Amino acid sequence: MPSRSPWTCILWDVDGTIVDASEGILRRLTIALEHFGKRPPTRAELVHWIGPPMFESFQVNVGMTPEQAAEAVTFYRGLNKSEGYSAGARLFPGIGELIRDAAAAGIPQATASSKPEVQVVALMDHFDLSTSFISIVGATPDERTLSSKSDVVAEALRRLQAAGVDTGRPVLVGDRHHDVEGAAEHGVPVIFVRWGFSWPHESEGAQAVVDDVDQLRALLLFGDAADPHEGADD
Q: Would you indicate the residue range of the signal peptide (predicted)?
């Protein structure tokens, strides 16, 4: 078992990185948008919805006002709560083992998700991953007070620091341009995973790009004698 890493801590995006919740998201979006007289997305169009805060997505994707978006978020989250936050969700292959192995190797980890924190906690509990994290960080329930990736990353770093973790060399693992841009505001490099819901150009600005969990594992756990910047995309 590796005991060292080029990183002092790891931050994890959740939707599209750890968890594939697309089945449930598509079902709830269909119900919610039809309720508000909007056309629901196709599965191919989920790329526009998974990643950013829902409050933002209802405005950008279907032209709602902030007030309408707030109402839609409340309706959508009500559906989510009634059917269970983990309904239809699954882990991407190998990712649970990697998170557990990183924890066993002594690498402090935290989630940094734009998903409401109560849902992130429920998902990590469901998949028996909660004990692998020093802190589980997500958005506030209204998705407005704390929801942008930049703010969530800042909160994750703050909680890790409060727990005595060295945050001098952090890394974020994510699958959307919001992850890259939000982390960059705090000087945090991003390892971009291609198995999520993204367009090819969204990896621009990432420290490195990986196609599978084995490649990610090599960057997180087997770089003890290597430069953490080695293998980065130009």
A: none
> Residue 112 in contact with residue 43, Cβ under 8 Å?
no
**3-class state of residue 91 by DSSP:** strand
Give bridge partners of residue 139 from the DSSP assignment.
Answer: 116
pLDDT tens-digit map of 96-152: 999 999 999 999 999 999 989 999 999 999 999 999 999 999 999 876 778 899 999
Segment (H or E) for 19: strand 19-20
Label the pairing between strands 90-91 and 208-210.
Answer: unpaired
Tens digits of per-residue pLDDT, 185-203? 999 999 999 998 888 899 9
Helix/strand/coil for 14: coil
Q: CA 113 to CA 33: how far, in whole Å?
A: 23
Confidence category of residue 9, pLDDT binned at 50, 70, 90: very high
In angstroms, the CA 83 to CA 179 distance is: 28
Q: Where are the alpha helices (DSSP H) in the chain?
A: 22-35, 54-62, 66-83, 95-104, 117-126, 149-162, 177-184, 213-221
Q: Are 137 and 163 in contact (CB under 8 A)?
A: no
Comparing CA positions, the residue from 51, 40, 52 lying closest to residue 16 is 51
| Burial class of residue 110 (count of CB atoms within 10 Å of its CB; 0-12, 13-18, 19+) | buried
CA–CA gap between residue 146 and residue 79 (Å, rounded): 21
| Bridge partners (DSSP) listed for residue 190 | 172
